[in-house]
């Protein structure tokens, strides 16, 4: 899909959703939800030539899990506000498109219902105020078949949830996000906010679940290195979709520094503002193994359910294949080795 098509998708979602839900999804720390897409648009390519016949290959693996393309679904809270079946539909789309879904802590759907759609999934966790519940929830996700844990370490600038009236999910956001806790656990936790993670939490989560831990929300090479040295199997360069500290650099501006700091010791992926196949090519060329897509998938879910999300993902994968050929390389790894992309100044 082109960015113009994604904008049409967003406008269809706007027409269908209550205004406060649409605004919650669009919200940022400063500027438009599309500001980071503009930064990806500003990446310049140095297309290669004279490389003979090319057969573009977009299939890859993420932490050993095979995917048909490197475009993954970002964990996003409360998808039942976009579609009554929320993450069930999102997981169906991931299965249809041959990719992976991130499942937010704040899901209103039991893990088992998401898992049975057949797509590989990573459980995204915040650290709940009651530590024992974080470990219990992560363990439960592992038992339900999660392939990795995404530990979100970014503090968003927004306090968005209180503005979201629970008209579309009668239990209300605070309850819904605890769908995978027992009633006793819910009572123990109440509505207290999350804790801020430290390095020890990485190994703890890995040991509790037996799963690889990916740290989401890194914008600096030094932090990425510390995360990997503390046991992270991967990092996601992310501004949480421009929802962090106002005035922060964009994900694309941080990617090169993080890739360099991590080297071959962990997998680096990126999100925030990825809107088309050319953006994916830029991310791969700058050293990412995969990207996550957030809001466009939410809008597609609201507008057309699982079919719409699968069309979005398949469309982006097709664009990536074409962009690889136009760039004169067959794979993301070749794009990176050929130093195909250059980030313009910031
Ligand atoms: C998010 N994001 C997010 N991240 C996370 O780790 N846990 C979460 O529960 C949520 N929830 C959430 C809700 C909504 C409505 C949005 C828009 C985003 C951040 C998300 O995983 C991802 O980092 C961004 O959405 C990527 O940016 P784009 O693609 O939306 O520009």
From TrEMBL:
Question: In which residues is glyoxylate bound?
Answer: 24, 126, 240, 243
Q: Which CDD domains match?
A: alpha_hydroxyacid_oxid_FMN
Q: Which residues form the active site?
A: 240 (proton acceptor)
Return the PROSITE patterns for the record: FMN_HYDROXY_ACID_DH_2 (PS51349)
Question: Pfam families per the record?
Answer: FMN_dh
Molecular-function GO term, any one:
FMN binding
**Binding sites annotated in the UniProt record for FMN:** 75-77, 104, 124, 152, 216, 238, 271-275, 294-295
The record, for InterPro entries, names: Aldolase_TIM, Alpha-hydoxy_acid_DH_FMN, FMN-dep_DH, FMN_HAD
Obligatory cofactor(s): FMN
Give the UniProt keywords, A-Z.
Flavoprotein, FMN, Oxidoreductase
Q: Which residues form the FMN hydroxy acid dehydrogenase domain?
A: 1-345
Family of this protein: Belongs to the FMN-dependent alpha-hydroxy acid dehydrogenase family.
PANTHER family found in the cross-reference section = 2-HYDROXYACID OXIDASE 1, S -2-HYDROXY-ACID OXIDASE-RELATED
Q: What is this protein called?
A: Alpha-hydroxy-acid oxidizing enzyme
Q: Which organism is it from?
A: Microbacterium barkeri
């Amino acid at each position: 899909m082109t960015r113009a098509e994604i904008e049409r998708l967003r406008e269809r979602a706007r027409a269908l959703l209550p205004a406060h839900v649409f605004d919650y999804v669009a919200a940022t720390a400063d500027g438009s939800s599309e500001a980071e897409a503009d930064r990806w648009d500003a990446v310049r390519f140095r297309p290669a030539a004279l490389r003979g016949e090319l057969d573009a290959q977009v299939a890859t693996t993420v932490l050993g899990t095979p995917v048909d393309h490197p475009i993954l679904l970002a964990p996003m809270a409360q998808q039942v506000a976009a579609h009554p079946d929320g993450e069930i539909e999102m997981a169906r789309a991931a299965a249809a498109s041959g990719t992976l879904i991130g499942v937010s802590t704040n899901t209103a759907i039991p893990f088992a219902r998401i898992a049975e759609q057949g797509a590989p999934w990573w459980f995204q966790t915040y650290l709940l105020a009651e530590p024992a519940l974080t470990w219990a929830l992560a363990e439960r996700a592992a038992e339900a078949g999660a392939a990795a844990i995404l530990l979100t370490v970014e503090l968003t600038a927004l306090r968005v949830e209180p503005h979201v009236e629970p008209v579309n999910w009668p239990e209300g956001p605070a309850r819904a996000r605890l769908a995978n806790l027992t009633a006793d656990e819910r009572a123990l936790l109440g509505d207290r906010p999350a804790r801020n993670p430290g390095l020890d939490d990485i190994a703890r989560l890995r040991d509790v679940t037996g799963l690889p831990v990916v740290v989401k929300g890194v914008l600096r090479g030094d932090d990425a290195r510390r995360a990997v040295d503390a046991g992270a199997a991967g990092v996601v360069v992310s501004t949480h979709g421009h929802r962090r500290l106002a005035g922060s650099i964009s994900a694309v501006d941080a990617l090169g520094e993080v890739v360099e700091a991590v080297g071959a010791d962990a997998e680096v992926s990126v999100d925030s503002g990825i809107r088309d196949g050319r953006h994916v090519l830029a991310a791969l060329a700058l050293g990412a193994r995969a990207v996550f897509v957030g809001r466009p998938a939410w809008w597609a879910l609201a507008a057309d359910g699982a079919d719409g999300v699968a069309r979005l993902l398949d469309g982006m994968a097709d664009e990536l294949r074409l962009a690889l050929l136009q760039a004169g390389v067959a794979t993301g790894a070749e794009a990176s080795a050929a130093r195909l992309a250059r980030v313009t100044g910031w």
